[in-house]
Amino acid sequence: MRLSRYFLPILKETPKEAEIVSHRLMLRAGMIRQQAAGLYSFLPLGKRVLDKVCAIIREEQNRSGAIELLMPTIQSADLWRESGRYDAYGKEMLRIQDRHERELLFGPTNEEMVTEIFRSYVRSYKDLPLNLYHIQWKFRDEVRPRFGVMRSREFLMKDAYSFDIDFERSKTAYDRMFVAYLRTFSRLGLQAIPMRADTGPIGGNLSHEFIILASTGESEVFCHKDYLSLDVPGEDVDFDDAASLAAIVDTWTTPYAATDEMHDEAAWGAVPESDKLAARGIEVGHIFHFGTKYSEPMNAFVTGPDGKDVPVQMGSYGIGPSRLLAAIIEASHDEAGIIWPKSVAPFDVGLINMKPGDADCDAACERLYRDLGATGLDVLYDDQDTRAGAKFASMDLIGLPVQVIVGPRGAKAGEAEIKIRATGERETISLDAVTARVSA
Ligand code: 5CA
């Protein structure tokens, strides 16, 4: 992508309304635009990162055996009356009437709708286990939308829903998602700690929040230092092997970890002082096992091997991709701007032409742009006629992992400079070697 043809509205001033660093940087880097309180457009750079985050989430959901579908954002109030949540949900739910005065709502979550789909088609335990997920916009009329996309009113959610014949198997479904989440967050460059959590309006009694430690986090959290060095399961994890999944979950739930709502002073007191991590955290995922809370009132029954009908056992599993953009930035930035982990960077390489119009610079950059692109790398080429200083600052701000810098003197000598954004390391190498080095 040539910057001269792209839409990257970088702000020079730090926006006053932004209280935390991720919000400031997302606005300055031209990633998001507020349209009304808690409602954001994702501008092209933000959209690219959002897509990359979703792609990783999708890969790990699919790997674990979950199946993608897409449910609408608007739901009927009647469906929610069946579970009893229409009245219980309160003011956070945006209620709408259509032209026929039918009551609708903008979905804050999808337990009811997915249960309706399930009961319409599935009758037998032989069709289980089943886990259906989608990535769809949600709306919650939060009392205090704040910190940009960290706590917005409209936000993207990956929500998965598992269906099983009995408690034991549904616990395995829970473990499967637990392990998929460990892998997902690790691939996003984050260290996420699963913590026992309150279930709120979703319900049930088994629940974990996945928390990123960050000083700007909204929740107070308490955990054992051991979490920082636990191994994340590899690609080869067998999602059909219930025992090994349970063993992984065991390892990841044994050291103490809890959010303030679930904090147990006595258990915390037993953790040696030097192993205690009391910090603030950002919730990036939340998983729930709630058994028959929805299947019973909504009549989602299946016939078991003994011929008896039983309400299906369910769990739900959420991740917030739009919040994740902010969480990743909270975890990875410096005073110059964002430092994207490679896996989610909006472009792989930033190519800076320090002097557009200079024949050597132009020729070298055009060649690098073509060659780097041919290896499959996404290159953002700053071909604009602006000051070199401003180019460097913008490139640092948007945080691409690698920069390739071409100036008139270097270009004449057949050289370019490579800069690694995360470490600031710089190296001058021959133009011929750039593509191989950057794509290695
Ligand atoms: N149905 C369940 C799980 S599918 C559910 O709704 N869970 S939740 O309420 O915990 O939300 C799931 C995830 O959505 C959260 O972990 C968080 O990452 C994200 N999320 C929730 N509220 C917001 C919000 N206001 N802004 C941005 N992301 C949010």
Summarize the structure.
The protein is α+β, with helices and mostly antiparallel strands and 440 residues long. The protein has 13 helices and 23 strands. It has helices at 21-28, 44-63, 77-83, 85-88, 111-121, 167-187, 242-253, 265-269, 321-331, 359-374, 388-398, 408-412, 431-439; strands at 32-36, 39-42, 67-68, 74-76, 94-97, 103-106, 130-139, 154-164, 192-196, 206-213, 219-224, 257-259, 276-291, 301-303, 309-311, 313-319, 333-334, 337-338, 349-353, 379-382, 402-406, 415-420, 426-430.
Give your account of this protein's structure:
The protein is α+β, with helices and mostly antiparallel strands and 440 residues long. It has helices at residues 21-28, 44-63, 77-83, 85-88, 111-121, 167-187, 242-253, 265-269, 321-331, 359-374, 388-398, 408-412, 431-439; strands at 32-36, 39-42, 67-68, 74-76, 94-97, 103-106, 130-139, 154-164, 192-196, 206-213, 219-224, 257-259, 276-291, 301-303, 309-311, 313-319, 333-334, 337-338, 349-353, 379-382, 402-406, 415-420, 426-430. The strands form six sheets. Strands 3, 7, 8, 9, 10, 11, 12, 13 and 16 form a nine-stranded mixed β-sheet that branches. Strand 5 and strand 6 form a beta hairpin. Helix 1 packs across helix 9. The chain is globular and about 80 Å long. The mean pLDDT is 96. Bound molecules: 5'-O-(N-(L-cysteinyl)-sulfamoyl)adenosine (5CA). The site of 5'-O-(N-(L-cysteinyl)-sulfamoyl)adenosine has 21 residues, from strand 8, strand 13, strand 16 and helix 9.
